[in-house]
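Journal club side-thread
Mid-discussion, someone asked how the predicted structure for our own chain would compare to the paper's figures. Pasting it here so we can look after the session.
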Amino acid sequence: MSERICVGAIAGSYGVKGEVRLKSFCAEPAAIEDYDLTTEDGSRAFNVTLTRAIKNGFVADMTGVQTKEQADALKGTRLYATRDQLPELPDDEYYHNDLIGLAVFDTGGTQIGTVKSVMNHGAADLLEIHGAQLKDTVLLPFTLEAVPTVDLSAGRIIADPPEGLID
């Protein structure tokens, strides 16, 4: 399991005073300002102060960002917090980072593929499954019916995909 979890991303600048548009991926969106944030490679650290909510995120002040140009340069930067800063999850919830790379097996024990990413386009999470025996990428709904078992310690998922999803 990754020691750092992606909790947000910088969507660009806001105004001309160095503020950024910030997307939060936290269950409680405003909690992002409670974490010590870094870039993916850990080369930069940021403290965040949310100044106001806007559509799809927040306006925020970030340490080391004083101009619009500096804010624009950070557009697309993903922000990470260490796992020990994050809340413990109930047994039936998972951080997306923990699911990526898990082997996916069907209910008969045959490996289908591995989880490449976790997506959410508004309705529910989807597991993007890739595998040598798959003709195309499979988007498996991450529901209890389609994914009855997630075993992080064994590094595997047992899936019962809807009929016709995997040929």
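Post-session note: Residues 68-73 form the longest helix (6 residues).
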